[in-house]
Amino acid sequence: MPAPILAYVGADIPRELVAAAGFTPVRLAADAAPKTEGLAGQTPRTSGLVAQVRNGAFAGVAIGHGCVEDAQLFSVLRELSRVGGGVAAPVAHLDILHGAESAIRAYNRARLTNFKAWLEALGGQAVTADALRAEIVASNAQRRRLAEVLALRGEKAPRLSGVQALDLIRRVSQAPREEGDRAIEAARAESRPLPGRRVLVTGSPHETSAVYAAIEAAGCVIVGEDHDWGEPSAVALLDESLDPFDALAARWETPPPSAPTGSSQVRAQALAAQASALDVDAVLHIRLPGDEASPWDVAETRRALAAVGKPLATLRLDLIPDTADLAAKLSAFFANPAGQAAPEPRAAKPVADGAKRPVAAANVGRRSHKSLTSTADFATWQRDWFAEVRRKAAEGPFAVVNADAPQEILRAMDIPYVVNQWWASIVAAKQRGRDYAALLRAADYPSDVESYSAQGLAAALDTDVEAAPWGGLPKPDILALTAGSDAGPKLFEAWARETGAALFAYARSIEGRWDLPLEWWSDLPERWEETLEAERLDLLTAQLEASIPRLEAITGRKFDPARFVEVMNLVNEQEDYYRRTRDLIAATHPAPAGIVDTMPATMVPQWHRGSVWGRDAAKRFYEEVAARVEAGEAACPGEKIRLMWVGRGLWSDMGFYQRWEESHGAVFVWSMYLGLAADGYLRSFEGEKDAMRALAARFVTMGDELRMPTWAGAWHVKEAQAHGVHGAVAIDDADPFVLAALERAGVPVLRLPMSNMSLEGDALEAAVTAFIEGL
Which residues pair with 418 in a beta bridge? Predict the structure, then answer.
């Protein structure tokens, strides 16, 4: 009787452990199938994988971390199951991180232990050390046989095509071992010399051979690749000399070069060595839909390949490419390989005296009318503060951090810093987004991936100091982020390379439970230790503690635990004022303030979280709103319609939000900024004993409140109901499951096809007007 099938997604699922538990491991590969019904807003890949999970006869499904989309797939399946989406098989998430530091090793070990227990419960048998060792030995033997056959591609006259190799790798990953062995031997028997230009493929992972077939139809032979569906992952061996459980864990200590959050430089150097060893005619960097990580590899890849005399072609293709168009592009490339050299110059030319920049669209920069005096005062203070930061930065040290990276340690050490997303809002407000996109492209970086977060990198490339917003962003000595996206670590690596800054990258762990506490906003402030997974808190706490000696060495400043407690207390006081302000606005009709006031009145002090000024500014904000409530003052006295805004704010066009107040009595009363400040940051603690762990509890969930379908959907519904909104307006970074949750709760949703950096607000105003009139 054949072993039951356990389907899995991601190269990091340990097939040996799955097999030792009595299952046949089958790696699911996404295809270009139509979208699954009921999954509007998800990528075709996610939709295709969900369809396979729903329709397959699987004993269970395991989802790895791999790329962010894989981790999100687990939460998608969990939410579909919660709302009756028909996910029948048990599903587990194995959140494995790459790295050799002790905190990551401990985290991986804990997650692997939990996964083993899940497999044992699912299969009804214990996984013994002997059974696991036997599976490792047998799997290694098969990988060696596979490597021998795949090596036929690298011969002087290749005897295996790229299509044959990729199809063989996929076949072996989706079949019982005996069947995989037969496929390997059949490929060996069928091998024959093949003509064509020798090319190496990098960039996006290829789960089908459609693109490979189109490349080889154009006269090439793919002799190798470095993505995680290709040869490097397929033939990687486990150390048979180790304890078998240790051997599984050890494989993750060194990230594969193609890991989405891995180093662009490491991948580029490995690729250059591979290109030389295989003596290829060219390397093809292929970007497929949905890939946000590999475009950040291009600049380093081009430099590394140039050093070994190998040309690089960059191609952006569909999952099923236009064969004729691809053939034409490859023909043009091989006719002039140097024609795809890195663009020059590296930065935009300074604006000449008297010259004018292009005029922005009519909607851009429309002034909003503020109801609160504190908002204007905060903006003035912010300008003075930034001027002082620029002065201090010239003396050093200076840091730039992502909004999802802990900042309180920097505050406690008196290290001046700027939050990257605040800087992006300034760039947007000054309408420099198009200029900065050009700077990125000129430096061989993508301008359409994480464009909001890339504004700091663009500032480092800006030579037009006179025109830089607010005098320009100083060169950082320290950069920090949480690796919450595939592109983020690579973006920050490029930024560190351009500036020489020291990079602090905190791991982004993923919630692994199938059943979640939905009312997290009530649980987290006081009961965060019971509400959150201990493994996640342990990891981030250890990483935060490990960052302190490194910061001390870089800056020459000492960390004072008592000062850190003071900062943490100030943060809690500040966020409590936001909570009280949010509650006032939610309960008061007409609303005393709209989001043209609450967005800046929240976010300016938020960038100074943990300071006395930040706490006092939040208090002043609350007191002014409370006074308006007492006086019966309203943002829109003729209020008839209350709206919520879902997604990042339109900082370049705040007047957009007041466009319908006079004509329709429609006021935007909610945005994520005040809502998240009210519910997402408060963490009680008991002095130095658990202050660092409380900081970890604050940031380990950062982003879950807005992006994890189950948590985010429930929270947005709660906020919509508390504020009495009649409808929600969302832009393209809004999570589709959030919007579906709002609609299930009876809140109409308008989806606008625009980002918060868009200049197309005017073109979409008619859609908003029609939406409001239909409420």
Answer: 400
Distance CA 27, CA 7 (A): 6
- Among 457, 492, 380, 480, smallest CA distance to 699 is for 480
Q: Which of 464-473, 494-503, 555-564, 616-625 has the lowest mean pLDDT?
A: 464-473
Angle between helices 68-82 and 709-723 (to 10 degrees): 60
Cβ–Cβ under 8 Å, residues 303 and 494: no
Average pLDDT, the chain: 91
Band of the pLDDT at 342, cuts 50, 70, 90?
A: low
pLDDT digits (tens, 9 = 90+) for 141-182: 999 999 999 999 999 999 999 999 999 999 999 999 999 999
Decide: 758 and 765 in contact? Cβ < 8 Å. Answer: no
Rounded Cα–Cα distance for residues 372 and 370 (Å) = 6
Q: What is the DSSP string of 680-716?
A: SS-----GGGTHHHHHHHHHTTTTHHHHSHHHHHHHH
- 94 pairs with which residues across the strands? 64
The CA distance from 456 to 400, in Å, is: 8
Helix (H) or strand (E) holding 389: helix 373-395
The token duo for 681 is 């940051």
**Residue 285: strand pairing partners:** 202, 314
How many residues would you count in the chain? 775
Residue 578 main-chain phi, psi, to 5 deg: -65, -40
Give CA 710 to chain center in angstroms.
18
Burial readout 232-250 (b: 16 or more C-beta within 10 A, e: otherwise): bbbbeebeeeeebbebbbb
CA–CA gap between residue 40 and residue 50 (Å, rounded): 12
Position 597 scores a pLDDT of 94
DSSP calls for 581-612: HHHHHHH-SS-S--HHHHHHHHHHHHTTTTSH
Q: Which two tokens stand for residue 88?
A: 């029948």
For residue 750, give the H/E element and its range.
strand 749-751
User: Beta-carbon neighbour count of residue 465 at 10 Å?
Assistant: 9
- Tokens coding 404: 């999802």
The Cα 58–Cα 52 span in angstroms is 10
Question: Within its chain, how far is the Cα of 401 from the centroid?
Answer: 15
Tracing tokens 């024609």 back to the chain, one arrives at 339
Lookup: tokens for 303:
């430099």
For residue 429, the one-letter residue type is: A
pLDDT value at position 14?
A: 96
| Residue position matching structure tokens 């890339």 | 454
pLDDT at 320 (0 to 100): 92
Range with the poorest average pLDDT among 28-42, 134-148, 206-220, 685-699: 28-42
Angle at 758 between CA 756 and CA 764, to 5 degrees: 100
Return the beta strands (E) in 262-408 as ranges: 282-287, 312-316, 399-401
What pLDDT band is residue 104 in, cutting at 50, 70 and 90?
A: very high
Question: What percentage of the chain has pLDDT greater than the value 90?
Answer: 78
Which residues make beta-bridge pairs with 75?
Answer: none
Residue 234's alpha-carbon distances to 15, 121, 134, 485, in angstroms, are 11, 28, 19, 25
DSSP 56: S
Cis before residue 345, ω within 30 degrees of 0? yes
Q: What is the DSSP letter of 218?
A: T
Contact between 35 and 56 under an 8 Å Cβ cutoff? The reply is no
Q: What is the dihedral of CA 284, 226, 264, 424, to 10 degrees?
A: 70
Q: Give pairs for 243-250: CB < 8 Å, separation 24+.
A: 243/129, 244/16, 244/129, 244/132, 244/133, 244/136, 245/112, 245/116, 245/129, 245/132, 247/136, 248/14, 248/16, 248/17, 248/112, 248/132, 248/136, 249/105, 249/108, 249/109, 249/112
52/47 Cα distance (integer angstroms)? 9
